[in-house]
Amino acid sequence: MKHDSILIRTCNGFDELRACVEMQISTWGYDATDVIPLKAFMLAQKIGGQVIGAFDLSLAGAGSDGTPETLIGFALSLPGVKSPAHGIPWPYLHSHMLAVHDNYRNCGIGRALKLEQRREALARGIRHMEWTFDPLEIKNAHLNLKKLGARCRRYAVDFYGHSTSKLQAGLPTDRLFAEWNLDSPAVAALLDGKPATGNEKAKAAEKITLPAEISQWKQNAREKAQELQLKNRALFQSAFSRGLAVIGFEIDEGGNGSYLLDTEG
Q1: pTM (predicted TM-score)
Q2: Model confidence pLDDT, tens digit, residues 180-191
Q3: CA 86/CA 89 separation, integer angstroms
């Protein structure tokens, strides 16, 4: 995959937003009750959110003669306001969806979309972004924690309720909250290729593990997947109640994943 053929930019017009809706359906397999409609994507842009697309310019006809460039990924965020018990409310973005076409997975497109979200948010003076992700997904955890430098301090049980997504496989929609401090020194150093926190693996006080087979279990051995979900749910809840946070993520040679937890000092 040649990265110089990929353009990351804000989506423009109904055709590109409609392509995001279609990719949402093909990625998650939602039925009509769960699909975010075209008008919601349009409204997100109008009220301060983001709809950012990845486009492959190498495909025949891309962008020529007024035809739309070919969407191969997108990220959707919604605006929010944090209201602390003491202090002044401040804005943030909730990144609700990120999808990449099957043929472009594992090529850095997801990270590129997140980085454009960060750039655009900072240009508007927004310094914080959050999103939720399935704690059973190794690749998502690796992107969010290892590649982007997000941290997790909250765990939600069955956050969305029942989901028709094929990726959820009928399991409760448990989610970790990723917190991304966009202009923190640690995040800036990581994105520049110079991690600022030293060897996270060495300093981790606790680990919560995922076997490499978890994706297969979700599809073909649901009882085993749910057993692991319940086990890890209790571990996350216990760790967060004791003031620990997820500070990193590692994947070993066998493809097994480990959440690294410690204090955030």
Answers
A1: 0.92
A2: 999 999 999 999
A3: 9
